[in-house]
Design brief:
13 helices; 383 residues; alpha/beta; 14 strands; three-stranded antiparallel beta sheet
Length: 383
């Protein structure tokens, strides 16, 4: 009797992109081994699907992988009977994630096979073996993560730059930061002008008036970024980054770096003092309800948001335009900050006037003055 056809999907994965540009890489090696195993099971009706489910450069610590998501979609569509991998940790290194995948496999009657680790997921012993293997895979991933974190901490302690996007004003040469001609003066301009203007918002408006935008750079994957106007967060990040005085920061500690400084220490200290002085102190207190939150707009439809400041030990509340919060141009004929207490008193007075008579209350609430007299009287008493 001829066995029924079982369609097999081969899934491959590699955590990094290193070596994937080679003509025959590790993904090809994994797939070749899996296809050979499927061929050996031809008598059982196994047939390899032509689709490639390859995730190159994706971690096994989560399920956010394009090829894996496509595989799951094909499983739910009934196109796959068997999932074949070279090794269990190619599919996932997380017990929790694998339990989710097993639920999908069981729901659609899919068998899971690792060609280098013999077990059967349809039996209790096979599941136990699989969970043990996954436990070691997860343990290995966590140990590797700890080693990487320890290496980064030790390297930064020695003053080494450990990667990431290059700070504005620097470029990397042989894994070391060096000042970049053409950007050094820009960094000095940012620090000096912030100290003179005294506000990040004013600095952003000046930069926009001069059409100053972020630098353009290309990632290792070939994507282009930059050429955007600077946001307040980006400027705060630059102005508070100790890399510009030759330091390397790791969490809450700062170490002497191996790279040269761009900003003079005296200018740096003055800017940090100014940043600290402009930061609104947040005190532990009961949250105060803002009467007009999310309901006050200007004539152009721009919302005003509640804010406050502390001066001489006293707290002042106001509503500020989103134009100022987001460093956008604000019309000269419109007030940017509205004193909260004054405008809230105006609203309260108007409400009291509207609720001063039975007729006005019934009109506002759409009630019948006679039929709903008790309800109207209750509103009138509570106003």
């Amino acid at each position: 009797m001829k066995p029924s056809v079982k369609y097999c999907a081969v899934y491959t994965r590699k955590s990094t992109e290193e070596g994937l540009e080679q003509e025959f890489n590790t993904l090809d090696a994994q797939r070749e081994g899996c296809l050979a195993f499927i061929t050996s099971q031809k008598a059982e009706g196994w047939v390899a699907l032509p689709d490639n489910y390859d995730d190159g450069g994706y971690s096994g610590g989560n399920l956010n992988r394009p090829a894996l998501q496509q595989l799951i979609a094909d499983i739910t569509a009934g196109k796959v009977n068997i999932v074949v991998v070279y090794k269990i940790d190619r599919l996932t290194r997380s017990l929790m994630d694998f339990s989710k995948l097993v639920e999908v496999f069981d729901q659609y009657g899919v068998t899971f096979v690792s060609i280098t680790q013999s077990f059967n997921t349809t039996t209790s012993m096979g599941r136990l073996t699989l969970n043990v293997l996954l436990s070691f895979a997860q343990f290995e991933r966590e140990v590797i993560g700890e080693r990487v974190r320890d290496k980064i901490a030790a390297s930064k302690k020695k003053g080494m730059w450990m990667g990431g996007n290059n700070p504005v004003g620097y470029h990397r040469v042989n894994k070391q930061l060096l000042p970049k001609e053409g950007e050094i003066e820009f960094v000095k301009y940012l620090f000096a002008r912030y100290l003179q203007l005294g506000s990040v918002t004013k600095l952003i408006l000046e930069m926009r008036s001069k059409n100053i935008k972020s630098r353009v750079w290309t990632s290792s994957t070939g994507k282009t970024y930059g050429n955007n106007t600077y946001s307040p967060g980006a400027l705060y990040s630059i102005l508070s980054n100790p890399v510009y005085i030759g330091k390397i920061k790791h969490r809450d500690k700062v170490y002497d770096g191996l790279h040269p400084a761009i900003i003079d220490r005296k200018l740096w200290d003055a800017v940090q003092e100014k940043l600290k002085g402009n930061t609104v102190e947040r005190r532990v207190q009961q949250p105060q309800q803002q009467l007009l939150t999310s309901i006050i707009y200007d004539v152009n439809g721009v919302r005003y948001s509640p804010s406050h400041t502390n001066k001489c030990g006293r707290r002042y509340r106001y509503y500020i335009s989103q134009n100022l919060l987001k460093a956008r141009e604000h019309p000269a004929n419109l007030i940017g900050r509205l004193p909260a207490e004054e405008i809230e008193d105006v609203v309260r007075t108007a409400l009291r006037q509207q609720l001063s008579t039975y007729d006005s209350i019934s009109h506002l609430l759409g009630l019948d003055p006679i039929k709903d007299s008790k309800m109207i009287e209750s509103v009138h008493v509570q106003r």
